[in-house]
Amino acid sequence: MRKKAARRFAGIASLLTLLLGHAIFAMAATPAAPAASSANGIEQRVAACIACHGREGASNNAGYFPRLSGKPAGYLFNQLRSFRDGRRFNADMSYMVQHLSDAYLMEMAEYFAGLDLPYPPVSPMSDAPPAQLARGRQLALEGDAARRIPACVQCHGAALTGVQPAIPGLLGLPRLYVSSQLGAWLTSERHALAPDCMADIGRRMTTADINAVASWLAMQPMPADPKPALSLPAALPMPCGGMPK
After folding, report:
1. Range of 204's domain?
2. Per-position b or e across 10-45, b if 16+ CB within 10 A of its CB
3. What is the CATH number of the domain that holds 195?
4. What is the per-residue pLDDT across 72-121, written as a single tens digit (0 to 9) for each?
5. How many structural domains is the chain composed of?
6. In whole angstroms, how far apart are CA 71 and each of 86, 104, 189, 229, 244?
7. What is the pTM (predicted TM-score) of this model?
């Protein structure tokens, strides 16, 4: 009798555990309903972003996390989708957006794109040697035709502040962040929508190239108008995914 009772109890316990597991999964898989419409609704829902990216997404240039304020909405939307869909990898970001819809991600992207906050001052000093900075300047402004590396300005705009609606600016970002993201393309740890032009460019760069361009970009002052350009003067040098058709 005791063995039968023990088996029966074990069966009931297993069933309860299974039902509880399904309930927890269902709760996790269902995104929380957006807050009631109000003037501060979106600000409250993106408050978690501030913990890493700084006040209202306007981080300084001394940390690791990139600035969100004022970046093109199309670019921010593509990055949020990439974290959700596994093309970019960051445990915290993937966890926060894993169950969010495209509409919700676009709302977040448009909120940060609409912020117009001042950039912190950039120090003109660098511990990079002059030869390294010269190489970084060359890659940013001229590229390297022999190795089929286009200049940064050909895609990110003449002022390197990005281009609407989906190309990010490269100024006002921490040097460590820029070098780590370029390195992630070199090692195939970061991906974008096909055709993945930055992956192709990243694989053509050496570690020295990456450190050089990241060092040079990090010490460039923001222009008087830091907003993304409305368009490029010429076609992109290569096809890139995530761009409007």
Report:
1. 130-218
2. eeeeeeeeeeeeeeeeeeeeeeeeeeeeeeeebeeb
3. 1.10.760.10
4. 999 999 999 999 999 999 999 999 999 999 999 999 999 999 999 999 88
5. 1
6. 22, 17, 23, 11, 16
7. 0.81
